[in-house]
Design goal:
By secondary structure, the chain is α/β, with parallel strands linked by helices. It contains 78 helices and 44 strands.
């Protein structure tokens, strides 16, 4: 059974899982920038200096800026220096330019800045407005505005108290030099310290500090004070003037700037605090927002620098990784750049960095190549590390043999890297043409001279030959010599043509390589001469002997033309200098537009060189010009001896090669034919001679001679045929040794292979296609005549013939060149060589191989675990142990945890602390390939990216190290396979029950191994197999044998039944033949024979590899059972995640199984008895049938005897004879068919006691076997590190199932985090790592992810004393509030980082008011204890000012009032509260204002100071509860010893005062801010706390969502944001208070101003919009752009076209304006389809003014319809016929009927309706009179004009009348015809009967 899979979490990861992606996100982020504002001298520069120092950002200060420019000798610095030397000040213009230039420097772009002197008070160059506008338009805008607020008085006192030491320029504050203050401070320290005993060490330290301070004070008073002077700018009047200027010119503009700033990024500080306190407040605010400081770079300088020069790369990295170690086990990691310099690589140069110039950044090491590169990298590493870096510069040289796909690959690389192919043939085209012309001229001259010499030589040879011929005596011999001579010349001709098509043979001094030599020309000339000699007549040749041979001779011209053709076809190789010069020019031109290739492209590189000669000379030329490529790619075909490339070459030159093959075969065939002809001729001559001789000897007749000739001719032909047949047989043998194929057209190559370039195609052969085809056609004609066929060859091969040797030579020639060239390349250490095999590779695959080769040195590299790694790990363990020993004592829980660690095995501790890879301890290769968790081992381990990876085998490790990228996670964690569990246990342990229950619980498959085997065998047999089945079969066979063992033949019916049963059996059952696999399964089930691995391969692997098991998981019940099966799993890599072993005792198994087995035994015994009885009955039936048959036979015999016997007298002894005969027959039958005796019970029959003993023995033996097998299986699985769990299964199955589920629960629930590993660290180490940028802070910041997932919205304040538990997960650091949360996260980190991103941190600001004893202070203190908020009552705020700032103006004024016994005025109290709210806790965590405000004046002051709590909770209780709680407090034992103001009188006064004021306060806040919330405080304090916390969480989430959506540019709800009606009106959008959604979708104008609530209001683009309801609000929040301009379909009409609702007074004021439609309701009229009946007059209470017209409506509903759709209803026309107007008529003026209708009709109708329903009948009155009386009473009782008394009077009469009328129906139902005795009557029957009778003759009106 399987459950549906869980739905994947919809949220993305909060933090990036990939380390490189996390680094990239940081590099692309904007640095944090600060702008510090405040009055002159408030302490901006001190704060900026501290902030820049700690936050690692750049301080931009005017004085330092000037000094920096002067030191750097910049243009601005030189100008400033000149001005200062002249005694002038640096102008503002120059300062602003330097400032703007500084902000754009690389250092500021990386680290950010702190700006504190801008805007300046001076407006000489630029006004304050312009300066602020510059701030708004900066490229790096300030993220934080820090405003230091300080009262003018306090600031003037501070600045006027400053003194300067003129010798050093040092500034001293008043508290440092004033003797009075020093004396007060000294006296204060002499006061007794806090109560309690202090440690001696602390006292000694304090004494030392006091002595040091006293000495410093003495030195100040004696040595420094006399030399202090006051600067003019510190004079009080000057300070006041500067502050006044600031307030008048700058303050207002800065307030506007701060109003535009996001409130979260605006930090307001109390300037009366010390610089350290201000800095602490800023840092606390930044940390609460989860921001990180600037990422610093660390210069790695090792003490072993001199030794690094000769070290290998690995040794260098190991040495640098330990430099300035962050912490044990946290070394600097290797980057993708390796040793390559990032700065040089960005410039397009691949240069190795120096270990002496190594730095660390983001936890990784980088080596720079020069001091300049180091300086640039240290200032701003971002541009050198941002993608696409590290990217190869793409300087590539591609070489390869012909048709290897070189040019195609070059184009692919160029497209991939957006580079350009530099084809040397194209670049050198002009140079080639010039060289070709020069070659042709030289060839022409040489060929002409050689041709003339050849012609002369030819003539001489011809003359000599003719003379020899003339001297000859026999013509035959001369002819033969002539033929030989011709043949020799033909041979020379062929050799010369081959030489002309060969490779160039000589290099001239000019550097141009030619292939035409004088010897070649000479051979060609001799060939031509020989040919012409045989063709031209002798006379013509003789005539030319004496003539002069010139260049115009035709033969000379022919030879010159052929030499020129050969020169045109020969390749030209230019000198290296030309190649390099042209290449350099092309690269220089390319560099001009190189950066435009793509974003971030290096300035150099981007070229791929093709067709460059692979020669040492040409490589040396590249080296001289510094044009060496970074990668040389060589395409090869070494597989199968170059078969793939030869096939390409053959297909490209197919016509030429086939023509040469056919020519060779044709020549051979012609030669054989010629030899046959010569043999035939010789035989003919011989036969002729013999015939002639025989004729000459005797005279033969003519006819006989002819016959003889014919006979001889036949003999000759026979002999010739025999000779020819022998020759043909030989030729056939030679031809058939090769495969033959018919000539067919060239097949096109597959798309998956690289297409050969046309250029290489043309270069590979020197013969054009036309020429080849013509030549081939000529050869084909001859071939067809001779019946010759081409040799056959495979489709992907080539013919192995001699004609392929030139093509093979080309490849061999290139390989020889490459071997020499590769040796030359190896001398350049930075040049990489990539040998790529082209066979079986597609263009895409080749490109991937090339890309991998180019990026080989720019990737992470892994290595096998070495001894050095083990040594480093031991060093880390030792360092960690020493660090733990040096730490201070921790809490007891931590000590216990440490003790447990010490008790653990050392290997387990090492393994737990070891940083593992993405698959933890599982083999990543098997996981990737098979989706199986196979535990790896440390022996087969490797390190990759400084993490440990375990592998199952060394082969898998090598595979991983070759291409690790395909096995690791990138943007998300690796997918974890489903849970796979093997459940083992002895027979009877409860495996199947537990497995089935657990599978249903977890939604997995339950696989019972033996049942699966049964299923497989039952497919063939149809029945189960096993020992029990075999026993049953044996018993059935015995029974059948018993049935068939009867001595007599069976009855016919029985035979027929048996035959039918046999016929019913199918042929398959009759001839059941099992396969070998099925036989093995049957043997395993029956005899426990082991299953061969081949059989298991068909059963087991599919559960791991095939669906649906592969993705769902399973519980495998009862496998593996033996060691062989466990070994099989290990060998096949089919590892379960867990092996669960159920342990049980033998007695328990016996108790469980024995009853079942005994029951089966009893059932078998019963079945045996039933079978025996059936057999007995069947035998009896068969015996009866046989007896009947035999009796019939005997009777027939007897009757026959009677017929044959002599006749006897009738009646004589007949009866006696018949009886005797019958007795004889019966005797025969009894003898032949004796009765079977009752079977005696078999003594060997097994008794129940014996069966029990046997079964117990079998159970014990089976248990021992299973137990030994299970132990062996456990030992075997331990070898492959499969985790095992042992569970005792003695208890009930449900308990065992629960225990099993508990064991597997974590594996199931935390399945997605199986590969994740977290490492807890200390708080100090966490902050150090973040400060050094070794690890990234999580996007959770200081939020606890566990609390956040639980819905927490209030972030607790993190003080230095707050315990925090940081954890490293992947590349981020997370902070937790408790160990429990940390441990929960470590179990399943994926669950908690896959949740919505944390919302912006919002400090809580709430107020709690209520009467005394309402519990407000208790709840406020609870907020303080749980979340660390600041609790502020007004007394707390005042005391804070008096204690912390006693010398401020506010403190002095408070003291003045308090010392006079006065209460602090509300104005001063509010100032104290405002100052306290600027504290660190209030700005970061929040504040709870306890018991304030309580008067309307205080509310007004809070409004004036902009102090608005987001929620004000009113704790509401009655006075009685107040006094009850006060009484309980008095009785409490925790009552303080001093008296409290909680007497009943005081509480009564406080309560009454509160209730007097609270109504007005509540009304104000409900109206203005809608932030008042009433809490029923009558409940317990826990209920009150939960209620307030719930509401506070709710409003905090609302604010967080609002801030987040507004920052993202989305629409956000503004409900509960304390927006006042005035602010709402000022920021309303284009639709005012009309719903934009209704207007856009329905065209309806819905006015939302009727309600002041902002529940359905939203903000978008700085404007407010109100919606009609929740549905409209949701639509607007999702897609606000569709409902506001410019996409809004309907704009809001002009105000004059908007409907305006009027009151009745407004309508009267519009007199004499008349209502439209004569006062009829337009909505009713139109909705009624403008019918006459729909003309309904309106009511002036429902009036609307629209388009200056008045409309009156029937009801409020109709009015609202018109208000929504005025355009629909406003323009209507009344019909001509109108209903009469309803003019008022006096009631008394109506006629009687009209009067009655208008006056009493309604009352009469109601009365008649009542009388009709009741149908009354008064006793002894008629129905009519009764009805009239009822109506009269009803009219009186319900007359609205009567008084209450009269109506009540007649109502009573009416009730009595109705009661009397009900007597008749009552008596009618209760009185019967028969008399009943009084006891049998109803109780009230007599009374009602008497009443009925008493009414006779009585007037009803008198009752």
């Amino acid at each position: 059974m399987m459950a549906s899979p869980q739905e994947e979490q919809p949220y993305p990861f909060v933090d990036l899982c990939d380390e490189d992606e996390a680094d990239k996100a940081f590099l692309m982020s904007k640095p944090t920038c600060f702008l510090i504002l405040g009055k002159p001298g408030v302490g901006k520069k001190k704060l900026a200096t501290k902030l820049a120092q700690i936050w690692k950002c750049t301080l931009i200060d005017v004085l330092e800026l000037i000094d920096e420019n002067i030191s750097a000798s910049t243009a601005y610095g030189l100008e400033s220096k000149d001005l200062l030397n002249q005694g002038q000040s640096v102008p503002e213009e120059l300062i602003v330019k330097m400032l703007l230039n500084k902000i754009e420097t690389p250092e500021v772009i990386h680290f950010g800045y702190v700006l504190c002197d801008f805007p300046s008070l001076s407006e000489e160059y630029m006004t304050i407005t312009e300066q602020i506008e510059i701030i708004r338009n900066l490229k790096l805008k300030p993220d934080f505005l820090i405003n230091i607020k300080c009262p003018d008085y306090d600031l003037c006192q501070r600045l006027s108290g400053q003194r300067q030491l003129h010798s050093t320029g040092q500034i001293f504050q008043r508290y440092e030099w004033d003797p009075d203050i020093i004396e007060k401070r000294r006296k204060k320290k002499k006061d007794p310290n806090k109560a309690g005993e202090e440690e001696e060490e602390a006292e000694e330290e304090e004494e030392e500090e006091e002595i040091a301070e006293a000495a410093a004070d003495q030195y100040m008073l004696a040595e420094i004070l006399p030399h202090l002077v006051q600067r003019p700018e510190d004079f009080l009047e000057n300070v006041q003037m500067r502050i006044e200027v600031y307030r008048d010119t700058v303050l207002h503009l800065l307030e506007e700037l701060m109003a535009e700033q996001d409130s979260q990024y605006l930090i307001e500080l109390d300037g009366n605090k010390s610089p350290d306190e201000l800095f602490t407040a800023v840092i606390a605010h930044l940390q609460s927002m989860g921001l990180r400081n600037g990422a610093i770079l660390t210069r790695l300088q090792s003490a072993e620098e001199e030794m690094m020069e000769g070290l290998e790369n690995d040794e260098i990295f190991r040495a640098l990784a330990s430099c300035k170690l962050v912490a044990p086990r946290y070394r600097w990691r290797r980057s993708r750049w390796g040793r390559a310099c990032p700065v040089a690589l960005k410039d397009g140069k691949f240069v190795m960095g120096s270990p002496d110039l190594a730095v660390s950044f983001l936890g990784k090491m980088y080596m720079l190549s020069s001091e300049e590169a180091l300086k640039a990298f240290m200032l701003n590493p971002r541009p050198y590390l941002l993608p696409p870096m590290p990217l190869p510069p793409c300087k590539v040289l591609v070489i390869g043999p012909p048709l290897s796909g070189r040019s195609t690959l070059c184009e692919a690389i160029a497209n991939h890297y957006t580079g350009k192919v530099l084809d040397m043939d194209v670049l050198l085209k002009v140079h080639m043409e010039e060289a070709r012309l020069e070659l042709l001229e030289q060839t022409r001259a040489e060929a002409t001279a050689a041709g003339i010499a050849k012609v002369k030589e030819k003539i001489d040879m011809e003359r000599m030959f003719r003379e020899q011929v003339a001297l000859g005596n026999q013509e035959a011999s001369s002819d033969k010599e002539l033929e030989d001579f011709e043949e020799s010349f033909h041979v020379e001709e062929r050799s010369s043509s081959e030489q002309m098509s060969a490779v160039p043979s000589r290099v001239q001094r000019t550097g141009i390589v030619t292939c035409t030599t004088e010897s070649t020309i000479r051979e060609e000339t001799s060939t031509e001469l020989s040919t012409s000699q045989m063709e031209e007549p002798t006379d013509s040749s003789l005539r030319t002997l004496d003539s002069d041979i010139t260049s115009d001779h035709p033969e000379v011209q022919d030879m010159v033309e052929k030499a020129i053709q050969a020169a045109l076809q020969s390749p030209i190789l230019l000198p290296p200098e030309i190649y390099v010069t042209v290449l350099q020019e092309a690269i220089t031109e390319l560099a001009k537009t190189n950066k435009e290739r793509f974003f971030g492209a290096p300035s150099k590189g981007g070229w791929i060189v093709d067709n460059y000669p692979p020669s040492a000379e040409y490589w040396a030329a590249l080296t001289e010009k510094e044009l060496l490529p970074d990668v040389v790619i060589c395409l090869k075909n070494n597989e199968q001896n170059g078969k793939y490339l030869l096939n390409r070459l053959y297909m490209a030159n197919k016509d030429q090669v086939d023509a040469e093959i056919l020519k060779r075969l044709t020549d051979e065939a012609l030669k054989r034919k010629q030899e046959e002809e010569e043999t035939r001729k010789e035989l003919q001559e011989m036969l002729k001679l013999e015939a002639a001789e025989s004729v000459g000897e005797r005279d033969v007749p003519t006819g006989s001679l002819e016959e003889l000739n014919v006979l001889e001719q036949d003999q000759i032909e026979q002999s010739l045929d025999s000779a020819a047949s022998e020759g043909k047989a030989k030729s056939k043998e030679s031809l058939t040794s090769q495969h033959r194929v018919s000539l067919r057209p060239e097949s096109s190559t597959e798309q998956s292979q690289i297409e050969p370039e046309s250029k290489e195609y043309s270069e590979s052969d020197g013969i054009t296609e036309m020429h080849s085809s013509e030549r081939l056609q000529e050869v084909k004609d001859i071939v067809t005549e001779l019946g010759i066929e081409l040799p056959e060859f495979p489709e992907d091969g080539f013919p192995d013939v001699p004609e392929m040797e030139p093509l093979k030579n080309k490849i061999s020639f290139f390989m020889n060149l490459w071997q020499k060239f590769e040796l030359v390349i190896s001398e350049a250490p930075l040049v990489q060589v990539a040998d790529i095999e082209i066979e079986g590779q597609t263009p895409k695959m080749l490109l991937e191989l090339c890309d991998r080769a180019m990026k080989r040195s720019l990737k992470y590299h892994g290595w096998e675990i070495t001894q050095e790694d083990e040594d480093e790990e031991q060093e880390d363990l030792q360092a960690e142990a020493e660090a733990l020993a040096e730490e201070e004592e921790e809490e007891e829980e931590e000590d216990d945890a440490e003790d447990e660690e010490e008790e653990e095995d050392e290997e387990k501790v090492t393994e737990r602390k070891r940083h593992m890879g993405d698959t933890k301890h599982f083999c990543p290769v098997i996981l990737k390939e098979n989706f199986i968790l196979y535990p790896g081992s440390y022996e087969n381990g490797a390190k990759y990216r400084d993490n440990y990876w375990y592998f199952s085998t060394s082969e898998n490790r090598d595979k991983f190290l070759e291409y690790p990228e395909i096995y690791i996670s990138h943007n998300k964690p690796l997918k974890v396979p489903p849970l796979r569990v093997c459940l083992l246990g002895s027979h009877g342990a409860g495996k199947t029950v537990c497995a089935r229950w657990l599978a249903n619980k977890l939604g997995m498959f339950h696989i019972q191994f033996e049942e699966r085997l049964q299923e497989l065998i039952m497919l063939k047999t149809g029945v189960r197999v096993g020992p029990e089945t075999e026993e049953e079969d044996e018993e059935e066979a015995v029974a059948m044998q018993e049935m068939g063992g009867s001595p007599t033949p069976l009855h016919e019916s029985t035979e027929t039944e048996m035959e039918n049963d046999e016929e019913k059996r199918s042929p398959e059952q009759k001839e059941l033949q099992l396969t070998d696999e099925e036989e093995a399964i049957k043997a395993n089930l029956v005899e426990n024979e082991p299953l061969p691995p081949e059989v298991l391969d068909n059963i087991v692997p599919e559960w791991w590899t095939k669906e649906p098991f592969r993705s769902t998981g399973f519980i495998l019940d009862g496998f593996p059972r033996t060691v062989d099966e466990a070994t099989y799993l290990a060998e096949r890599g089919l590892c379960p995640d867990l092996v669960v072993c159920l342990e049980v005792e033998e007695d328990d198994v016996s108790d469980r199984i024995l009853p079942t087995l005994l029951q089966k035994w009893q059932e078998k015994q019963n079945q045996k008895k039933e079978k025996k009885q059936k057999i007995k009955d069947l035998k009896a039936q068969m015996r009866e049938g046989q007896i009947m048959k035999r009796r019939a036979e005997l009777l027939a015999v007897q009757a026959k005897k009677k017929q044959n016997a002599p006749a006897r007298p009738e009646g004589e002894g007949d009866d006696e004879d018949d009886e005797e005969e019958d007795d004889d027959i019966e005797a025969v039958l009894e003898e032949e068919f004796p009765k079977e005796e009752d079977e005696v019970e078999d003594e060997d029959e097994e008794q129940e006691s014996e069966a029990i003993e046997r079964l117990k023995t079998e159970i014990a033996e089976k248990f021992e076997t299973d137990l030994s097998n299970m132990q062996a299986v456990q030992e075997e699985l331990e070898k492959i590190l499969i985790p095992q769990v042992t569970i005792g299964s003695k208890r009930k199955p449900r308990i065992v199932c629960y225990q099993l589920y508990k064991k597997l629960k974590d594996l199931v629930e935390n399945r997605e985090s199986l590969f994740e590993k977290c490492y807890p660290i200390s708080v100090s180490l966490a902050h150090k790592m973040i400060a050094l940028s070794y690890k990234h802070p999580s996007n959770f910041g200081e939020w606890d992810p566990i609390k956040l997932s639980e819905g927490e919205a209030i972030k607790a304040y993190q003080s230095p004393d707050t315990p925090t538990f940081p954890v490293i997960h992947r590349n981020h650091i997370y902070f937790f509030a408790s160990k429990e949360n940390r441990d929960k996260f470590m179990k399943n980190p994926i669950k908690y980082i896959r949740q919505p991103k944390p919302k912006p941190t919002v400090p809580v600001k709430i107020a709690i008011v209520g009467p005394p004893k309402s519990g407000k202070t208790t709840v406020a203190k609870k907020f303080v204890s749980v979340y660390g908020l600041m609790r502020l009552s007004m007394g707390d705020a005042i005391r804070m000012i008096l204690n912390d700032q006693p010398d401020t103006e506010l403190a002095l004024m408070l003291k003045w009032h308090l010392q006079k016994g006065l209460t602090a005025p509300d104005e001063l109290a509010i100032q104290a509260l405002d100052t306290a709210l600027m504290g660190t806790v209030c700005n970061t965590a929040g504040v709870v204002i306890d018991g304030y405000p309580v008067t309307r004046k205080q509310v007004n002051l809070l409004e004036h100071m902009k102090i608005i709590p987001v929620k004000i909770f009113e704790m509401q209780i009655d006075a009685q509860e107040v006094f009850r709680r006060a009484l309980l407090d008095k009785q409490s034992s925790d009552r303080p010893p001093y008296p409290l103001h909680n007497s009943s009188q005081i509480l009564s006064i406080k309560n009454s005062c509160y209730r007097t004021q609270v109504e007005e306060i509540r009304a104000f806040y409900e109206e203005q801010h809608q932030n008042w919330y009433v809490v029923d405080a009558f409940h317990s304090k826990w209920w009150n706390w939960n209620k307030l916390l719930e509401e506070t969480q709710k409003i905090t989430k609302q604010i967080q969502i609002y801030l987040e959506r507004i920052r993202q540019g989305k629409a956000a709800s503004i409900a509960d944001l304390c927006i006042t009606p005035q602010e709402l009106l000022s920021r309303l959008g284009e639709f005012g208070q009309y719903c934009p959604v209704s207007l856009a979708e329905k065209g309806e104008l819905i006015d939302c101003s009727v309600t002041p609530s902002l529940r359905f209001a939203a903000e978008f683009r700085g404007h407010y919009y109100k919606m009609a309801g929740q549905e409209e609000l949701d639509k607007f929040l999702n897609t606000p752009e569709l409902y506001v301009p410019p996409l809004a379909p309907h704009p809001l009409p002009l105000p004059s076209k908007l409907p305006q609702k009027l009151t009745a007074a407004d309508v009267k004021a519009l007199f004499p304006m008349q209502a439209e439609l004569q006062g009829y309701c337009p909505v009713t009229y139109l909705d009624g389809k403008q019918r006459y009946e729909a003309l309904v007059p309106g009511n002036i209470e429902y009036a609307v003014l629209y388009r200056k017209k008045l409309y009156i409506f029937e009801s409020e509903e109709k009015l609202q319809k018109f208000m929504r759709l005025p355009e629909k209803y406003w323009k209507q026309k009344l019909p001509h016929k109108l209903p009469p107007k309803n003019e008022p008529v006096l009631l008394t003026a109506l006629p009687l009927t009209g009067y009655l209708e208008q006056g009493v009709a309604t009352a009469i109708i109601k009365a008649m309706n009542e009388v009709g329903c009741l149908k009354p009948k008064f006793p002894f009155l008629s129905v009519k009179k009764t009805a009239l009386l009822f109506i009269a009473y009803h009219l009186k009782a319900f007359n609205p004009r009567s008084s209450d008394y009269v109506r009540k009077k007649y109502k009573r009469k009416l009730d009595r009348f109705i009661e009397n009328c009900e007597l008749i129906p009552y008596l009618g139902t209760k009185m019967t015809k028969k008399y009943k005795e009084p006891p049998n009557r109803p109780i009230d029957l007599d009374h009602k009967l008497q009443t009925f009778l008493s009414l006779k003759g009585v007037d009803p009106a008198s009752l």
